[in-house]
């Protein structure tokens, strides 16, 4: 008889990496103040965080969360559907809708649950959900939970999207779901072209802007960046990046959000977001609305690092956001580079397949508004040392980069 656990014996990659001393995952930070962290007793420059605006350490955000903890406690002990909705939740719903330019918004306990609940609620049997091949895992899982049929198109390839939609029945409901900013490559979705194709085939468009809110479009997201807020049907965001908290939201027309509110299982059957997290997100939102300088500093830091890494001879792909991949391609060399950078006091995120396509292993770096030039130069020094030691730097690429900068 087959044993469910037989497959466990075949999973050996992680243990092999542990034995070699280069296993990079589930290793704990003992302290973090945002731009730096303490990792296994060593101070490192943190360029692996999604804390884009640096607000997790803002005293106003911390105080708001602490005050909410004192008043409301640690949990609402119920779902929003029943006893878990506070007036704070409703206020954040309203404020988020106004911020992204939509009639209504609805907050979920996590960003992951937002996509699971929204997509599975809207896409029914006989419908189609069409996603980019580089879509985030929670988009894929939301599609799997729906009763519709999943179709994929090549990454940001408009002709592939057109071909995919052209094969679908005209009478079927269609939802296109794309990331506004892709979390690994750091590139922005070609939203104007996607909307044109969606109109051609009568499809609706949802943008997962987890890495766009607070970053693109002066912080209001990718749809705002392109001036297409009205043309995008649904905007999704998370609080675990720029909002310095945890949670997520979906925003759109009031009738659509009302429907999701009554059909999203991940909302109805999960405890609501605790008040301290709600207040942290609300306070971060107020800062985004009133202090645009955080967004400006973020982009200054991101552009400096992207240009410097490229000029050094690293492959940074097609990034045009504060997510800057350093593409190494080989899984083993990526793990070696990660450990070598740790030894030089630089913390990055190693990403291998299936997190990225095969032969596209990378060190994912991302930047914050609160990084000082000293932090960034320390990181660049580490990349220079490690790149030369492990032969990761392409001299011809560095020459081309210098020519383009000139």
Give the strand tally. Answer: 14
CATH class of the largest domain: Alpha Beta
Q: What oligomeric state is this?
A: single chain
- The CATH architecture of the largest domain can be given as 3-Layer(aba) Sandwich
Tally of separate domains: 2
Question: Which range does the strand content fall in?
Answer: 15-25%
Strand order of the largest sheet: 4-10-9-8-7-5-6
Low-confidence stretches: none
Radius of gyration: 22 Å
Question: Helical element count?
Answer: 15
Could you tell me the CATH topology label of the largest domain. Answer: Aspartate Aminotransferase, domain 2
- Provide the structure class: alpha/beta
The major β-sheet equals:
7 strands, mixed
Question: What would you note in describing this structure?
Answer:
The chain has about 400 residues and is an alpha/beta fold. Helix content is about 40%, strand content about 15%. The strands form 3 sheets. The chain has a 7-stranded mixed β-sheet with strand order 4-10-9-8-7-5-6, with helices on both faces. It has a 4-stranded mixed β-sheet with strand order 1-2-3-12. Helix 3 runs parallel beside helix 11, helix 4 (about 110-120) runs parallel beside helix 5 and helix 12 (about 295-310) runs parallel beside helix 14 (about 375-390). The mean pLDDT is about 95.
